[in-house]
Design a protein that fits this description.
Blueprint lengths: L2 H6 L8 H38 L5 H34 L6 H36 L6 H26 L13
Helix pairs in contact: 2-3, 3-5, 4-5
Length: 180
């Protein structure tokens, strides 16, 4: 393998400490938002189901608020899961490819495709928010606007995670995975 291939397929690039700290804080914030959204979701569903079956009364606003909290459970939750498990799944999927350069090429191509997808999600979300807020000048419906912001925020955070995974790419150690 020549020097240019070695540089192209580096192993274990470490982020500068300030970027690594910011990245860890971003993931911690995503964990807290997901935990808060899950707690709110469980509480709302419990209250609504109890009200429906015990008191024969439901709160109509809870269904809509539950949809909003479900979205804010999914957005930061998938960001955290992508960071924690993307490399593991890449190792499993690339388990039977013995050539290191080819394995890393497939991994890099997958990262590039995911980055393009989430960049598209981000820019489409920005356009949607801009258009929606231009035509709907009623700012009294804050939960709806927070709902609209989920798409560009999700795209942006996932681009950061994919970029970090791509830059800090490690050679999957396929010898430690038992194929059975």
């Amino acid at each position: 393998m020549n020097d240019s291939t070695t540089k192209m397929f580096h192993t274990g690039y470490k982020l500068p400490s300030f970027l690594d700290t910011a990245y860890k804080w971003m993931l911690l914030l995503c964990d807290y938002v997901a935990a808060l959204a899950l707690a709110i979701q469980v509480t709302l569903i419990t209250i609504n189901v109890t009200g429906r079956f015990v008191f024969n009364h439901t709160f109509g606003w809870m269904d809509e608020f539950s949809q909003y909290t479900l979205l804010w459970l999914i957005v930061p939750g998938t960001v955290s899961l992508m960071d924690r498990y993307a490399l593991f799944y890449a190792e499993v999927l690339l388990l039977f490819i013995e050539n290191t350069v080819f394995r890393k090429s497939v991994f890099a191509f997958n990262c590039i495709l995911m980055f393009v997808f989430f960049a598209t999600v981000f820019w489409t979300g920005i356009d949607y928010v801009r258009i929606t807020w231009t035509f709907e000048l009623d700012y009294s419906d804050i939960p709806k606007y927070v709902f609209y912001l989920a798409m560009p925020i999700w795209g942006f955070l996932m681009m950061i995670v994919v970029l970090k995974i791509f830059l800090c790419m490690e050679d999957p150690d396929v010898t430690e995975i038992d194929p059975e």
